[in-house]
Amino acid sequence: MPSPDVADDPAEIAPRFKRSRFTDEGEGSVATRGGIVTVTRMMVAGTFLEVSFSKEDPRIVTIRRGGGEAGTPILLVLEEGVRHICLNSSGDATIEVITTCRKLENGIMKTGRLFADYAVELHGFRVEKTAITLELRKR
């Protein structure tokens, strides 16, 4: 018998989210260490966004975001067409976050641009659908 808190089709009971757009421009840094490229962008109130990937296989991207009042950073793994289970520990508890990436274009090394269209799930229910574009420009 299925659990009462698990729907046959999560889309049927998932709340409808209003589409919004957020643009943030500012300074960041790019570093390469041990074959791993990391783009870091400090944001408001001590929060940050960090995007990392291997130079040898840029098809898998790790996004780490959080800090400041948001507390413990959350770690997401993105790979086009693959569903990844990401375990995030806050010290008090471990949270299972699942990402499914519909589209990933990582041209950071060639064009300075990364695009990812992905969904985030908690306990099998989609809680966020996000598209992120990261563009690097020289100062």
Describe this structure in words.
The chain is mostly beta strands and 139 residues long. The chain has a single domain (29-135), classed as Beta Barrel (Lipocalin). It is built from 1 helix and 9 strands. The protein has one helix spanning 10-13, and strands at 28-33, 36-42, 47-54, 60-67, 74-79, 83-89, 94-107, 113-122, 125-135. It has a 5-stranded antiparallel sheet, with no helix packed on it. The protein has a 4-stranded antiparallel sheet with strand order 6-7-8-9, with no helix packed on it. The longest helix has 4 residues, at 10-13. Residues 1-17 have low confidence and may be disordered.
What is the fold named in CATH at topology level?
Lipocalin
SS content category: mainly beta
Query: Approximately what portion of the residues adopt beta-strand conformation?
Result: over 45%
Order of helices and strands: HEEEEEEEEE
Count of individual beta strands: 9
Give the % helix: under 10%
- Physical arrangement of strands within the biggest beta sheet: 1-2-3-4-5
Total number of distinct structural domains: 1
User: What radius of gyration results from the CA coordinates?
Assistant: 16 Å
Q: How many H/I helical runs?
A: 1
Classified by CATH, the class is Mainly Beta
- The separation of the N and C termini measures 60 Å
Mean pLDDT over the full residue set: 79
The CATH architecture assignment turns out to be Beta Barrel
Low-confidence region ranges: 1-17
- Main sheet? 5 strands, antiparallel
CATH superfamily name? Answer: Calycin beta-barrel core domain
